[in-house]
Design goal:
Blueprint (H helix, E strand, L loop, with lengths): L17 H4 L15 H39 L11 E3 L8 E7 L3 E2 H5 L3 E2 L2 E2 L3 E2 L5 E5 L3 E9 L4 E7 L2 E6 L7 E6 L2 E9 L6 E8 L3
Parallel strand pairs: 1-7
Antiparallel strand pairs: 2-13, 3-6, 4-5, 7-12, 8-11, 8-13, 9-10, 9-12
Length: 210
């Protein structure tokens, strides 16, 4: 009878060499598994930092753009608003009356602008500006046209145009006005105040209604 002797064949009891499994082709040992995620975390932190820096730079550029734009807009001078109105009309104009506005007064004597002390329509008194207050352009002759000043203060009037120069004072209460036939052309109008350097707002009514 044959007896077999049992033999136990085994592998030596060794701890697994994890480092050996992680060796690269260059035989350089890599970090243990637990440190494998650290480069990824570092990359995420770096990307997050870059995103924050990019976001901050974007906000800074946008803010700078709007700041410079607002400064440019504020630095631009506001368009000048007209202080005095001009008027161009012809016979049968509508609406009637037409109105123009301004401020009376100035440093020049009305008589110096008119070149005389008196006209057929009234005296050349008061103080006016060096330049005309208004320009009235008539495209055709008028058989009748009235230019009447309305103001809370006493006003005077000088008109120069085709045919000569006319002055007036107190045509309607304390306000000046001129009415009659008018030739076509361009008329310069000065509105004065009795006192030097006194300025008062007014309205001029231009009408064909007698």
């Amino acid at each position: 009878m044959l007896f077999l002797k049992s033999v136990t064949i085994g592998v030596p009891n060794r701890e697994p060499n994890l480092g050996a499994k992680l060796k690269s082709k260059s035989n350089s040992p890599l970090l243990p598994y637990i440190t494998k995620a650290e480069p990824e975390n570092a990359q995420r932190r770096q990307k997050g930092k870059e995103r924050k820096e990019t976001s901050f730079l974007s906000y800074f550029l946008v803010f700078s753009f709007y700041f410079l734009l607002s400064e440019k807009i504020l630095a631009q001078p506001a368009p000048p608003m007209p202080l005095f109105d001009n008027l161009t009309i012809g016979p049968g104009f509508k609406p009637d009356p037409r109105t123009i506005r301004g401020i009376s007064g100035g440093l020049e004597r009305a008589s110096d602008i008119a070149g005389r002390q008196e006209t057929a329509n009234g005296p050349c008194v008061g103080f006016v500006g060096k330049n005309p207050s208004h320009t009235l352009v008539l495209s055709s002759p008028f058989n009748y046209l009235r230019v009447q000043v309305q103001s809370p203060d006493d006003t005077t009037l000088v008109i120069q145009g085709p045919g000569g120069t006319w002055c007036n004072d107190d045509s309607e209460g304390k306000n000046a006005g001129i009415a009659g036939e008018w030739l076509p052309g361009t008329y310069s109008i000065w509105i004065g105040s009795y006192q030097k350097n006194k300025y008062t707002p007014y309205i001029i009514r231009v009408t064909q209604v007698q």
